[in-house]
Specification:
The complex is a heterodimer of chains A (56) and B (398).
Chain A lengths: L16 H7 L7 H25 L1
Chain B lengths: L2 H18 L15 H7 L3 H6 L1 H15 L3 E2 L8 H7 L4 E2 L12 E2 L14 H6 L1 H13 L12 H32 L2 E2 L4 E2 L2 H9 L2 H10 L1 H21 L9 E5 L9 H21 L4 E5 L7 H4 L7 E5 L4 H8 L4 E4 L3 H6 L2 H15 L5 E2 L12 H14 L3
Parallel strand pairs in B: 1-4, 5-6, 6-7, 7-8, 8-9, 9-10
Antiparallel strand pairs in B: 2-3
Helix pairs in contact in B: 1-8, 2-4, 4-8, 5-8, 10-11, 11-12, 16-17
Classes of the chains: A mainly alpha (56), B alpha/beta (398).
Chain lengths: 56, 398
C-alpha cells in the first residue's frame, strides 16, 4: 500500500515549487507568499489533468 | 431564499444525512439519480442537456422542484460535451454530433493495439502518474494536443486554454447550481467529489478493458504497482472536491470490478486493496463514499463489510439488495434497488409493489435511501418515477 510517495511529482503538484524557485532571482519580498500562490495555481493545473482523466 | 424553503432544506438535509449515517430519519429519503430523464421531462433533447450544461442544470432543478425530492445530483449528464470538444478528446461520441440528437453520449474504447496507454508503459505511469498523463496520455487522447518533442501549435495552446477556462466555469457552475437547488426548492445536492478505483481507471481510460485483462495475466505486478501509484492521486482529487461540511458523500463510480468483469480472486488481488486504502483515507478525513456499484456486486459484499462503520453508503444496482442488507446493513446505509427496466416498462402498480418490498425488507430500521438501481436515462417512464416518489413519501414514514 502507498505509505510514502517518493515520486518526483506528488499528489497536487505539477511543477514543484523547489524547481520553480531555482529559476527565480533573489526574492526581495515575502517568499512564502510567492510560494503559496505558486502552489495554489499549480494545483489548478493538477486538478485539470486529473479531472480530464476522471470526469470526462 | 424564503424562511419556509430554508426550513425545508434543513429538514431534507437532516433526513438525508441521518439515513446515510445508518440512522432512522423521519421518513425514507428520496434521492433519484436522474440523467437524460431530466431532458425528457423538461422538454429538451439529449443533445441540448449534453452540449449546454445550463440547460442540464435547469432540467435538474425543474425535476427537483416538481417531484419534491430530498436530494438530487446537480447535473447527472455530467460529461459536458462542450468541454470535451474544446479539449479535442477522441474517446467521446456526442449526441447530435457523432450520434443522433436523442442518443446519450458514448465512451469509445480504442482497438486493443491502439490503447491510450501501451503495454510497456506501466513503469512510466507508476514513476510519475501526473507527468505521464500530461506528457503521454493527453497528447494521445486529444486531437489537438501536440506530443512532447513535436512542434507546438495554435490548436495545442487553445486546447489547454479553452479546456482550463471551460472546466473552471463548469465546476463553478455546480456551486451556483447547489445554491439554486437549495434556495428555489429546498433540495440537497446529493454528492460532492469524484472517485474511481485505480483498476477502473486503468481499464476505462488507459489500457482499455481487453488490454487490462491481458495485463492481469501477463504483467500482474506492473498492474499492482500502477494501482498503488494512482491511489494517492485519486485520494487527493476525491478529497479536493469533497463537501467541506462533510454532509454529503463522495461519488465512487464502480465499473468493472464485479463478476463477470473480474473474478472474486481477481477483485481481491487487484481491485480492492488500493480502493480500500483510498476509502479508509477519505473516512479518516471525515468523508463518506457512495459506492455507486453498477452491476452485481453480491460476490464482493464480504470485502465491503470490512470497512469502518458508516464509511460508505452502498448503492444497489443488480446486487441482491436483501443479501446486501444482511451483509452490510449493520454498518452501512443502502440506496437504490428499484430496477431501471421496471421503471421503464412496468406499471405504476408494479413499481409501488417493488418499493414496498424494498422498504419492508431493508428500510425498517432506517439506513435506506430510495432510488432506482442505475442512473435514469431517457427510457424511464415519468409516471413510474412519480409512483416511486409518491409511494415512498406515503409508505416510507417511520
Amino acid at each position: 500500500m502507498p505509505e510514502q510517495d517518493t515520486s518526483r511529482r506528488p499528489p497536487g503538484v505539477c511543477i514543484p515549487w523547489e524547481e520553480k524557485r531555482k529559476e527565480m532571482p533573489a526574492i526581495r519580498g515575502d517568499e512564502q507568499l510567492v510560494e503559496r500562490v505558486w502552489k495554489d495555481i499549480d494545483g489548478l493545473a493538477y486538478m485539470y489533468i486529473w479531472q480530464v482523466l476522471l470526469s470526462f | 431564499m424564503s424562511a419556509a424553503t430554508e426550513t425545508l432544506y434543513a429538514q431534507r438535509l437532516k433526513r438525508y444525512v441521518t439515513a446515510m449515517r445508518n440512522g432512522k430519519p423521519d421518513r425514507v429519503p428520496i434521492r433519484p439519480f436522474v440523467a437524460e430523464l431530466t431532458a425528457k421531462y423538461a422538454g429538451y433533447t439529449i443533445q441540448e442537456v449534453t452540449q449546454d450544461y445550463q440547460k442540464a442544470f435547469a432540467a435538474a432543478r425543474k425535476c427537483a422542484a416538481d417531484f419534491d425530492w430530498d436530494a438530487v445530483v446537480g447535473n447527472m449528464v455530467y460529461g459536458w460535451a462542450g468541454l470535451v470538444q474544446a479539449i479535442g478528446l477522441r474517446y467521446y461520441a456526442s449526441p447530435g454530433v457523432e450520434l443522433p440528437p436523442d442518443t446519450p453520449f458514448q465512451y469509445l474504447e480504442p482497438p486493443e493495439d491502439e490503447a491510450w496507454m501501451r503495454p510497456d508503459e506501466y513503469d512510466a505511469l507508476a514513476e510519475d502518474p501526473t507527468g505521464y498523463l500530461l506528457s503521454v496520455w493527453l497528447p494521445r487522447v486529444s486531437a489537438d494536443v501536440s506530443p512532447l518533442g513535436q512542434p507546438s501549435s495554435l490548436r495545442n495552446n487553445l486546447s489547454f486554454l479553452k479546456g482550463g477556462m471551460a472546466m473552471l466555469e463548469y465546476f463553478q457552475g455546480f456551486g451556483v447550481q447547489a445554491d439554486r437547488l437549495r434556495s428555489e426548492s429546498g433540495t440537497v445536492s446529493a454528492i460532492s467529489g469524484i472517485l474511481k478505483a485505480p483498476l477502473d481507471i486503468l481499464a476505462d481510460k488507459l489500457r482499455g478493458y481487453k488490454g487490462l485483462c491481458a495485463d492481469l495475466f501477463r504483467q500482474p505486478q506492473k498492474v499492482l504497482a500502477a494501482c498503488e501509484a494512482l491511489a494517492p492521486h485519486l485520494l487527493e482529487v476525491a478529497a479536493g472536491g469533497a463537501d467541506p461540511q462533510k454532509n454529503v458523500p463522495i461519488g465512487l463510480w464502480m465499473h468493472r470490478g464485479c463478476v463477470p468483469f473480474l473474478s472474486p480472486p481477481q477483485f481481491e488481488k487487484f481491485y480492492w486493496p488500493t480502493l480500500r486504502w483510498i476509502v479508509e483515507g477519505l473516512w479518516a478525513r471525515g468523508h463518506q463514499t457512495l459506492f455507486y456499484a453498477e452491476g452485481d456486486w453480491t460476490a464482493n459484499l464480504k470485502y465491503f463489510a470490512e470497512l469502518p462503520e458508516r464509511a460508505i453508503v452502498f448503492h444497489v444496482d443488480r446486487s441482491d439488495i436483501f443479501a446486501a442488507h444482511r451483509t452490510l446493513g449493520e454498518k452501512f446505509c443502502l440506496s437504490g434497488g428499484v430496477p431501471n427496466d421496471l421503471l421503464a416498462f412496468g406499471t405504476p402498480q408494479d413499481v409501488r409493489a417493488c418499493c414496498k418490498k424494498i422498504i419492508d425488507g431493508v428500510a425498517r430500521q432506517g439506513g435506506y435511501i430510495m432510488d432506482a438501481s442505475a442512473i435514469m436515462q431517457d427510457d424511464t417512464n415519468v409516471e413510474n418515477l412519480r409512483a416511486m416518489t409518491d409511494f415512498t413519501r406515503e409508505y416510507g414514514v417511520y
